[in-house]
Amino acid sequence: MSANYTTEKKFDKTDFTVTPFVKGEYENCAFVNCNLSEADLSACIFIECEFSGCNLSLAKLSKTALRDVKFKECKMLGLRFDQCNDFGLLVSFENCSLNHSSFYKMKLKKIIFRNSQLQEVDFTESDLTGALLDGCDLLRATFENTMLEKADLRTAYNYSIDPEINRIKKARFSLGGVAGLLDKYDIEIE
């Protein structure tokens, strides 16, 4: 256990750009409408926490542990989730903006992304087996050697996924989204 252990506390409208974020372990805590942009969350541990309406853009996540953490309506631009501690990693995102974030080489089996902006997100070599990308905008997101087996992208849009360099067996796509699997061929589908 780290020196600073906080449990069952609600942080409401705290601006951590003014009040520095105290590093430590946070369990069953709620962060509501907080500003954590560019905050150094390195080596912090978050267990069963929820972030809602927060700005976490460009926060530092080196060795940060996210264990059963929910993000709702958060602005999370340019985050390097690939630098997180992958032990016990479990996150979900709802109505979040994650543009320019990286999930490079991450194990994200059964991860849930709902109604989120995932533009220019890097999923290279990540494992999205059984993932749900519900109503997500994947414009210019990178899928390369990505495991998408049994993933559900039926309501996702703007994606470009090359079936030759990604594993998509049993993945689910909508008929309208199939064009995103044929992008590299530069063909017209009407």
How would you characterize the overall build of this protein?
It contains no helices and ten strands. With 190 residues, the protein is mainly beta. Strands 1, 2, 3, 4, 5, 6, 7, 8, 9 and 10 form a ten-stranded parallel beta sheet that branches. It starts with a strand and ends in a 56-residue tail after the last strand.
SSE map:
Layout: E1 5-7, E2 10-12, E3 25-27, E4 30-32, E5 45-47, E6 50-52, E7 65-72, E8 85-94, E9 112-114, E10 132-134
Number of helices: 0
Strand content: 15-25%
State Rg: 17 Å
What overall geometry do the principal axes of the alpha carbons give?
A: elongated
Mean pLDDT over the residues: 95
Structural class assignment:
mainly beta
Number of strands: 10
Largest sheet: 10 strands, parallel
**Run of helices and strands:** EEEEEEEEEE
- Helical residue percent band: under 10%
Question: Termini, distance in Å?
Answer: 58 Å
| Low-pLDDT regions | none
